[in-house]
Every structure is written in C-alpha cells, then in structure tokens.
Amino acid sequence: MTSPDRPDGVTTVRTTAPAHTQAPVPSPQPYISVSGLCVDFETQGHVTRVLNDIHLSVERGGFTSLVGPSGCGKSTLLKVLAGLQAPTLGRVSVGGMTPAEAVRQRRIGLVFQEAALMPWKSAFDNVCLLMEIVGTFGDKEAIRARALELLNIVGLGHAVDRKPSQLSGGMRQRVAIARALALDPEVLMMDEPFGALDAITREEMSDFLLDLWQRTGKTIVFVTHSIDEAVFLSRDVTVMATGPARILECLTVPLAYPRNEDSYATQAFAQTASHLRKRLKEGHRAGRAS
Ligand SMILES: Nc1ncnc2c1ncn2[C@@H]1O[C@H](COP(=O)(O)OP(=O)(O)O)[C@@H](O)[C@H]1O
Ligand SMILES: [Mg+2]
User: Fold this and answer.
1) Which domain CATH number covers 81?
2) Which of 84, 169, 220, 273 sits at 20 to 30 Å (Cα–Cα) from 206?
C-alpha cells in the first residue's frame, strides 16, 4: 500500500508487515533520524550541493539499505550518520544524540568496501587491537576470549592465526565485521561491504550478514548499488536520486524473515526489485537532466 506523499516529497511505501519469525523486533522510536539534511562541498571556490533536504528514519534493530546510482551521495550520507562528515544544514540523531557523541560512546561500528586490516597482524590480533586501545574490555585474557568468540560468530574460528594475505576477500570482510563488532556498537554502518567480492561469495556474505543481524539484534545501515542485495537483506530500502542527492522513496520489503535462497525466486522479490529498478532509473534520468 502506498501512503500519500510526505510534505518533503518522499513517497513512502508501506506493505503489510511481514511475519518476522527470527528477525529483531523493531521498536516504534526511530534509532536514527535525519531531517532537512543538506551537505555542500566546496572545490576550487565552487560550492556544490551533494545532499539536498534528506529525511530518513531507521528503527532500532532495523535493517535499512541506501541504494542509488554511483556518485549520488550514499557514502556522504553514511559519513554524516557516522560522524565523519558535518552537515551543512539539518538535524541528525543517532541513538538520541549527535553522531559525534554516538561515536564517542562507541555506538557506531563501521565496515567499508576494503577490509583495511593490519597486514602484519593475524585475524585474531586485528580483532583484539581496538579493544586493547580502548582499554575497557578487561584484561588480556578477557580480550582474547572476546576476540575468539567474535571470530567464531563470523565463522572464522578455524583461521584465527592467518594473516590478511592468507585470507580470501570474503574472509577478510568477516574479520572487518568482527572488528567492527568488537566494541559492541548498537549500529553497524556498512558502505558497499561486499562490493569487491565475486557474485557467489557476495550471496554467501549476505546469508551470513542476515544470520548475524538476527543473532545480535544490531541496527544495520547498509549502502549498496545492488538492487538484489538490498531487497534480499533489508527490511527497508531508501532509494536515492542524483544531482543533488535526495530521497525518492522509502520502501518496506514485503518479504518475511528468515530469508534464504528461495527468497530470490519469489514474486514479492521480483516485484520489489523491478519497482526499485524503475525508481532508480527515474532518479538517474532526473540527475542527468539537472
Ligand atoms: N570531500 C569531498 N569534496 C568534494 N566533493 C565530494 C567529496 N566527497 C564526495 N564528493 C562528491 O559528492 C558526490 C557524492 O559522492 P559519494 O557520496 O561518494 O557518492 P556514492 O557513494 O553514492 O557513490 C560525488 O559527486 C563526489 O564527487
Ligand atoms: Mg560510495
């Protein structure tokens, strides 16, 4: 069902709530809220508006994907949410505080397309590192036990001693996810984390991430330009248009959890993906015309 357009011009599409059998139960209060967000960049004396009047709401325990054409501003929006980029205008709240405060309180875990592990350290030592720096996770033994637990959670209990060069791309991303989880953040913000992986590994990582989400109840904000990835993973998908980036639509995916290989073959999956594809094309055309 499509609700009337909001005053900010965003179409909200709400479908019948799926029967989430294992997924975290969302709370009615948004965990992340963004209103009237604009970001301008200045290059060589010329100011460009990259994000324009963005309104977004992510529920606690939700899984929201941001999709949009390359260069439309997805990473910039994620950076604002993660406190890495200051807004030019607008309000942003993460867990009831500013992103900078949420970072200070270690509520945000980040995962990027490149795992960016310390190449000379083992998977195990890479996961221990932040906990050792932060110093609030107990003694050496407690940190080691937690790192081992996290590596088991991401399915790497057998590879703890391997260096990054001895791990596949998917395994390196699992280490990066374990490292992001080490400080026990409330939200994982992920910027195209599977973008550098081959198609099959990418689908395996999607299965893994859904399982992890269901087990940990973390809020996840996931940037991707893959429509199928967004539909498979997300409870909510936010479609961004380019030039300057704005939100075209927020859609709730009408697929129940748990999701698996069969989900890709359902009519709901095909219809949602086709709808998103059309909206993305519209957004792309609008960007070229502006
Ligand atoms: N620090 C910056 N200074 C100037 N322009 C930037 C900066 N960061 C990003 N941009 C521009 O903002 C736009 C959006 O970039 P980005 O958020 O990386 O897009 P996406 O992640 O959707 O591919 C691009 O045109 C990019 O060149
Ligand atoms: Mg990007």
Assistant:
1) 3.40.50
2) 84
Q: How far apart are CA 150 and CA 168, in angstroms?
A: 18
Taking Cα atoms as reference points, which of 279, 245, 288 lies closest to residue 53? Answer: 245
Q: What's the pLDDT score for residue 288?
A: 66
User: Does residue 92 sit within a domain?
Assistant: yes
Which pTM value belongs to this model? 0.88
Does the CB atom of residue 68 touch ligand 1 within 6 A?
yes
- Report the number of distinct structural domains present in the chain: 1
Q: pLDDT tens-digit profile of 74-126?
A: 999 999 999 999 999 999 999 999 999 999 999 999 999 999 999 999 999 99
211 part of a folded domain: no
- Decide: 93 in ligand 1 pocket, CB within 6 A: no
pLDDT in the model for residue 287: 64
Residue whose CA lies nearest to ligand 1 atom number 23: 71
How many A from CA of 139 to the centre of ligand 1?
A: 41
Q: What residue numbers bound the domain in which 238 lies?
A: 28-107+227-290
Residue 246 corresponds to which tokens in the numbers above?
């704005």
Instruction: State the Cα–Cα distance between residues 189 and 194, nearest whole angstrom.
Output: 13
Q: Among candidates 87, 94, 85, 83, which has minimal Cα distance to 59?
A: 94
pLDDT in tens, 175-229: 999 999 999 999 999 999 999 888 988 898 999 999 999 989 999 999 998 999 9
CA 80 to centroid of ligand 2, rounded, Å: 13
| Atom of ligand 1 lying closest to residue 76 CA | 17
* Inside any domain, residue 99: yes
CA of 73 to the centre of ligand 1 (A): 6
Q: Is 58 a domain residue?
A: yes
Question: Ligand 1 pocket, 44 CB below 6 A?
Answer: no
